Automatic annotation (TrEMBL):
Keyword list, A-Z: ATP-binding, Nucleotide-binding, Transport
SUPFAM superfamilies (UniProt xref): P-loop containing nucleoside triphosphate hydrolases (SSF52540)
InterPro entries linked to this entry: AAA+_ATPase (IPR003593), ABC_SmlMolc_Importer (IPR050093), ABC_transporter-like_ATP-bd (IPR003439), ABC_transporter-like_CS (IPR017871), P-loop_NTPase (IPR027417)
Protein's name according to its UniProt entry: Molybdate transport system ATP-binding protein
Organism for this UniProt entry: Leeuwenhoekiella palythoae
Entry-linked Pfam families: ABC_tran
PANTHER family to which the protein is assigned, alphabetical: SPERMIDINE/PUTRESCINE IMPORT ATP-BINDING PROTEIN POTA, SPERMIDINE_PUTRESCINE IMPORT ATP-BINDING PROTEIN POTA
Amino acid sequence: MIEIDFTKTLDGGAGSFDLELKLALEAGQFTTIYGASGAGKTSTLRMISGLMTPDRGSLVVNNEVWYDSSKKINKKPQERSIGFVFQDYALFGHMTVLENLIFAKGKNDGTNSIDELLEVMELQQLEHRKPETLSGGQKQRVALARALVQKPKLLLLDEPFAALDNTIRFKLHEYLKRVQERYDLTTILISHEVGEIIKLADKVVCLEQGRINKIGSPDTVFTNQNLSGKFKFPGVVVKVEREEIISVVSVRIHTQVVKVVVQHHEAQALALGDQVIVVSKAFNPILYKLEA
Ligand SMILES: Nc1ncnc2c1ncn2[C@@H]1O[C@H](COP(=O)(O)OP(=O)(O)OP(=O)(O)O)[C@@H](O)[C@H]1O
């Protein structure tokens, strides 16, 4: 359990405001922080990691006090069991992929196996390459593997996929889900992408000017409904066609476009580019084996 209860006055563009966060996250849970630019998302992760000090409050991770202003406890970032991945990779350019991971391991025992991480993240073929020779998606896989070497209790991700195109981003979601489940990681992701949040997160915390204004499952936060469909696919509206009795909305889901029949009044509420969730209650798929 991660118990966050701290405040800090931040210098916003239009004057100062208080970031006030009281939040409990269950171990192994995947939480996303969502909110407008300047709401205090990055500051929150920096305070959890010890890179920024709150004005007052406490932070307790699995019953271990990392910060408590009244008891004057403030663990240094290197004493907190955290893996941090940023948008800009921050890999060591003069080291190969393998050397980056070995460096992260340091002299510590009890770390995750580097061989296993290379395998899970499918980096074996790239282990002797330097970061400058890798694509953005490959670099981010290395950054994710490196963040996991020290067996962190908490994985913090600050818009790690924002600079990548959709296809690479979708692949990285799969890798992230895979490691999150394999290592039972308590994860906090900052994201602006509603589709990404619906796909990955158990819980979403919406921040506005330093305060939590909504919290809950992505379904309830973004649609005000508890969606009970068997299959849920986040997508983007690419076409709305009004026909005689009904309207047809085309939704791009990853690389496919599906057509969904809706009532006219539902179609009227939609614009091209809107993010939506396609929910299917009864789904009777037919399976075809692909020949390699
Ligand atoms: N050390 C600091 N002391 C005081 N104010 C700060 C400090 N660091 C950042 N701020 C201010 O706090 C506000 C919130 O910044 P933060 O980076 O947390 O926002 P954000 O929600 O992550 O935004 P974005 O989505 O643009 O990254 C900004 O106005 C920023 O200038």
